[in-house]
Write the structure tokens for this entry.
Amino acid sequence: MSDPVLSLSGIYKAYNKGKPGEVAVLKGVDLAITPGEVVALVAPSGAGKSTLLHIAGLLDTADTGDVAIGGAVMSGRSDRKRTEARRRDVGFVYQFHHLLPEFSALENIVLPQLANGVAQAAAEARARDLLTRVGIDHRADHRPAALSGGEQQRVAVCRALANKPKLLLADEPTGNLDPATSDRVFDALMVLTRETGLAALIATHNLELAGRMDRVLHLQDGRLV
Ligand code: ADP
């Protein structure tokens, strides 16, 4: 069997450790996501979804426990190694699109590829292909302000996948959208994850969307059930 794309074992995380305001957020999280698997992470606000996604995506470190991406254990690696792994292997989508306002939709998908050493022509071709697959290639030259919320978020999904990551992490990617738009963004996300065989962990409040993923995990009292 191939290695899990993401493996978390025994993850503990508390904020304000040892101080009066200490909050234990994650209390022994174990998780393995295999290639091609799309997993929903469901929990009420404040339960620790963002904390878990940040640790899985190497943006934050756990107090104890191991994070492995593509079989490579990241705990204890230098910041430089973790940043390299994050840039190469992980794509993020947030609740708000965080697109660069001065650049077109296409350029927002091209720039992270240039930063990764991809040549301009190849980066543009990939960006156009991604935009076509999510049905908004006709919006390629528009800046984010000229796009609808759903279109902005579909561009953000394309940007997250621009560098062909192994793992997609999404934090309430449709949380800011009306139900019809939310469906369209989710469809785009599923089309791209299915086509690329990448693994995804998607935090959502939306149980209907969660039900369309391969597996639904609930974060309850610091553990996944
Ligand atoms: P969710 O994404 O499920 O809403 P978070 O992971 O953002 O939850 O937060 C989980 C808990 O940790 C919350 O009680 C939050 O207030 C607390 N928390 C998050 N980040 C910090 C921080 N940097 N310092 C202190 N407490 C934090």
